[in-house]
Amino acid sequence: MSFREKLLHENLKVSLENPHMVFLLLTPSSSTPTGSTHKMEYAAFISRSRRFLKVPVLLNNLGVLEQLAYWRAAAPCAAAGFHRATNTHSSRFFSPGGPLRAVSDVNAMNDALQLELQEASRKLEQSERLVETLQSDVSALRKKLSEKKKRDAGNGGPVAQVVHEALRSLLACPLCHTHTHTLTLEAFPVPGVSQQEVDDGTSAPETASPMRPGRRAGGTLVGTDRKRRRSPSE
């Protein structure tokens, strides 16, 4: 412990209002016994009866470390072997400006990835907004359709109105007032024949069938009557 640090301890003890207050001064050692550069040793010097007691202290780093930060330069070290190794192999890993070559490449790749991620995020945000707009349009169309269905149900609906008009037109047709119709064997209506004539047994006028011109409405062929008339004379 240097003489300046001892004087600082004594002056602080005199200046403090509470003389029983313990004052700690943490000083890192210049180099560790093993000559490593990544480890720092701390010690607390406690003043008691004008004597300083050295107490080792272990400090835990509770801060948030940046994951993207890299050490661009090695920590200072007094070991001669470290300087020789650094001077021999530094040209393979370090650029002439000082920073590591691999670190520069990693930083460039990281910047490119960040740009791609920002572009993908922007496209995703635009697509989400477009989906929200389409959903609102679909909801509005569904609402209009449901309101239209309710109005059509209250008015009977267009289909019901068309069916009602067709039924009324069918009932107003003169053919619907005829209760019975006489049909031929081919299911064609016989004109001029009423149900009363059929009940009385009167013969209907013979008409040719539209499907079979040679057959009359009664079901006999035209040429068969002539053959039956000739048979008694023979």
UniProtKB/TrEMBL annotation:
The keyword Coiled coil applies. It comes from Liparis tanakae (Tanaka's snailfish). InterPro entries: BRISC_Abraxas1, FAM175. Residues 194-234 are annotated as: Disordered. The keyword Lipid metabolism does not apply. This is BRCA1-A complex subunit Abraxas. One of its GO terms (biological process) is protein K63-linked deubiquitination. It holds the Pfam family MPN_2A_DUB_like. Keywords: Coiled coil. GO terms for molecular function: microtubule binding; polyubiquitin modification-dependent protein binding. Residues 103-151 form a coiled coil. The gene is fam175a. One of its GO terms (cellular component) is nucleus.
